[in-house]
Amino acid sequence: LRDGIWRGIRVFEDLVRFVTAIAITIALGVIIITSDVVLVLIILASSIVNIIVVNAINKRWYIWSKDTESERRMYNYVNRTFYRQRFAGEIKTTKISELLIGKYRNSAKTINKKYAKTHKSVSMFHIIHNVSKGFLEQGATYLYLGYQLFEKGLKLADFTANLNATFQFSSNFIDAIRFLTSLRENSFYIDDFLWLVNYKPKLEEQKGLSIGEVENLEINNVSFSYPDTQIKTLNEISLSLAKGEKIAIVGPNGGGKTTLTKLLLHFYLPTAGYITANNIMYDDIDGKNIRSKYAIVFQDFQIYALTIGENVLMRRLLTKEDEAKVWEALEKVGMKEKVEQLEAGIYTQVTREFNRNGAVFSGGEVQRLAIARVFASDADIYILDEPTSSL
Question: Which tens digits make up the pLDDT trace of 250-274?
Fold first, then answer.
């Protein structure tokens, strides 16, 4: 993803240089053709070799990038793990650091080994590239113009002018060609990036009805099995809820409580049975619309390196009403007094990842912030997945 983004920017920058180079190339090319077309042919021959060789080199480095993707991800993961505060306790008190460092070194070893192998495979291409540039381009140009100078009576001033014009033409022509080879190289990574950002899960593509306020919710004989397993996480579950009702679902770990939440949020489709909202089949309702009706505290909730207010509202604070909503939610979870003591209040940055003066909360306080999101929402249905585990 990161490769695709910065390479997209690089294509734009290269395009600017390409336009400049092509304009100069055309201007000098016209002058040289009218003077001696052989010089243009020399440059073209060298450039053709250059395109073929550079494309071959770029293709091999792209293959290296794909082959080492998992190792580079592990390498970066270990770097991030040692950087983040939430891992510090285990790293300092257990031997997990030895395991992580071992994986880091193994990943680095594999990356370097494949790098050396790829570098070795492109060495011959680099030799061909340098020979074509040195002999076909510069050497042939000097030889041809030298022949014209000593055998055909070319004037020294014309020799110097043709030599400078040829090398200027060559330099800008190669810059223009380099854009094409660079475009080819970047396209490998950009194609991967575009595939990712344009990927649409089947449930996201499914459009449907938009419903108003949820008055009732029905789960009818719902069963569900995760892909590649025959085990039923849920088996013939039925449930009826009306507006204003509160229920608790109690069960052992792995009993399917979180899975039921994901079905209600339309992340998955039931293996059997069906769900309705306002007596309308879930399959007929737009997925984004049904999700907008829920406010959830997930079991594996996340806190972001944003302000306290943004972590509660899960969006930017735009009005005084937004501020009031955040303070009210913090009061309901017992965090108002704590946040009031902070200099920037609800505009205090959470974590110190980007701000040394950011707020660092305990596990229970972080969970209270997550619960505050429910109180700050305008949702019809609240789902709290083990919301008090750290309280």
Answer: 888 888 888 999 899 888 889 999 9
